[in-house]
Amino acid sequence: MSSYASILTQILSNITLYIDYITLIFGTIGGICNLITFTSRQMRQSAAVFYLLYGTIFQLLTILYCVSMRLFYDRSGSNLQNESSIFCKLRYYFVVTLPALASYYMFLATLDRCFCTSINVKIRAWSEIKIAKRLSICMPIVGFIISIHIFILYDIYNNLCQIKPGSIYTFIFTGYLIVIVTFLPNILMLIFSLITVSAVRNSRQRVNTTNRVNSMPNGQRPQRLELKLIKIIVIQVVLSVLLSLLRLGSYSYYIIANSISNPTINQRSAAGFAISLGGSLYFFSYAIPFYASMISTKYFRDIFYQRILLFYRRSLRQFI
């Protein structure tokens, strides 16, 4: 191994280790704090909160399972996934499905905000709590069924947990990861976020013109919670899209580098560095929603502090 490749490998090991530990520790804490906030009485008044609540659950599962697995295999040297067919299948099935479900719940929250700000009454009717409850329950069923092909086609070949070498499914699975899991939910979130922001701006301009009439639902100003949720969701979408694009770019570089005939050791090391770092940043995106909301939105901070104070007072009553 050249000195360049050796240094790059050592840098990669340290950077990804720190990112994964930060993701695991702060992501778990942030996820629990999000659950505390989204289950408050004030927050439960909005349909989007149900999507955010379920999304937080799958973000937590992604962090606890996927990141823990990364740390375990990178540091323990275990070869279990290359020895147990069941474990091989389960690992990749959940590593793909859990973060995909977390992303699609965020998309549903974004879509709900877009419906909520529409001037069309029929479209606004889709932004209801009863619809959010039904979709929130159905989404995991659909997600786990769609991803079942991973569990079926991943197995141990040539003493490695992988897709059968030379199989056309290799290209199908790559397309599935890039388009369905990464690109599609993020591009849809971005599109509907832009539509929502545009609708809110247009509404405010009309309000400033008439000083009395607002084109938002029922001709009234949008409720404080609804506007704050738009801000929370848009910020999370921007961060998610940026980090997902980094992962997509790193994965593309990895594919290009390995498609070169007889790549050098340095090229292989650079490709490995790119895809591993991209993976760490991808999972890191599920650790930051709570902190982004706390920094950007006073309304969110106030509700969180109220919930913590409520738990503190209840705890005191138990000991008095």
From TrEMBL:
Keyword Transmembrane: yes
Subcellular localization(s) per the UniProt record: Membrane
Stored PANTHER family: G-PROTEIN COUPLED RECEPTOR (PTHR24243), PYROKININ-1 RECEPTOR (PTHR24243:SF208)
Positions of the G-protein coupled receptors family 1 profile domain: 30-242
Transmembrane segments annotated in the record for this chain: 15-36, 48-72, 92-115, 135-156, 168-197, 229-250, 270-292
Name of the protein this chain belongs to: G-protein coupled receptors family 1 profile domain-containing protein
Keyword annotations of the record: G-protein coupled receptor, Membrane, Receptor, Transducer, Transmembrane, Transmembrane helix
A GO cellular component entry from the record: membrane
Position of the signal peptide: none
Membrane topology, from the record: Multi-pass membrane protein
GO MF annotation terms: G protein-coupled receptor activity
Keyword Chaperone included in the entry's annotation: no
Species of provenance: Adineta steineri
Gene3D superfamilies (alphabetical): Rhodopsin 7-helix transmembrane proteins (1.20.1070.10)
